[in-house]
Amino acid sequence: MQINRSNKSRLSDWWWTIDKVLLGSIIILIVFGIVLNLAASPPIAEKLNYTDQYVFVKKQFIFMTLGILITLFFLFSEYATYKTFVIINFFWFTLYYDFY
User: Fold this and answer.
1) What is the rounded CA–CA span in Å between residue 54 and residue 88?
2) For residue range 2-41, what is the model confidence (pLDDT) as tens digits?
């Protein structure tokens, strides 16, 4: 798939305006975290008496997938969506938590 500058889709606009060094750094950090989790998860799971030695790796993949989906949602949504989301969450957190 080739993304031209003449193409005015949301994906094309995103690709030509994003900081590619930052995107690459984030991807490297994600891969590095997965590798470290694969190395450290089995001994810790065994020490904590989990039956599945890759329980922490599975949790990381679940939350990583959730984080990527939420990030993509906000990357390709309009500013009005952000504004509505922030206002709703502000009032919800203000009412739910007692800030003293």
Assistant:
1) 37
2) 666 677 777 777 788 888 899 899 999 999 999 999 999 8
